[in-house]
Amino acid sequence: MKANAVPMVVLWAMAGALVAGYYLAPRVQTVLNHFGRFQNDYGIWAGFISQFVFCGMIPCAFRLVVADVRTERPILKSLLQSLWCGCWGIVYVGFYALQSRLFGSGSDFATLAAKTAFDQFVWSPVVPVPCTAFFCLWMENDFSLRRAARKFRHDFIRHVWLANLLPNWCIWIPAVLAIYTFPTVLQVQILGLVGSFWALVSLRLAKEISR
Description:
Blueprint: H1 5-24, H2 26-42, H3 44-63, H4 74-103, H5 109-126, H6 128-140, H7 145-153, H8 156-179, H9 184-194, H10 196-210
């Protein structure tokens, strides 16, 4: 968590700047509304493209040049990661729509707190955190399901689940709170914009767990 302090602060700053820009700067709102129209026009495919690019291709470009996350078979892994993130974009289009049905689409504190709590303390520990941890371990273990499963099972709570969940909470609770201040149609696009750094953090954690 100490090693991830810099990406955590950068991600918070990005999320805060996007919120401030959207509500205080008309030009920023105009630009972000283009993303909202893109999402509205193309639905789940817009979610796929957003996550494919911002959480897949952009972090993978860093993977090619940054020693901490450099790996073997970088092109294949970059393609697989981008597809994986794109599929999560589709999932999150549905998840954010579900959140709006459950808690409404308001931006009052009670609604934001309910959505953030459900996101981070119900949804994240059960679905995206363990799934992403296993996916990254599978890639870092040369696409061997057997080796990945063995390391996934070994001291799962401390070395895999908590190792991913605690940084996830530290980084994403403030960021998710910021994301939910936006209209529902923009939320998955904002998730993509601020998610590139978390993709790098996940890659680094998987590399350390594999070692």
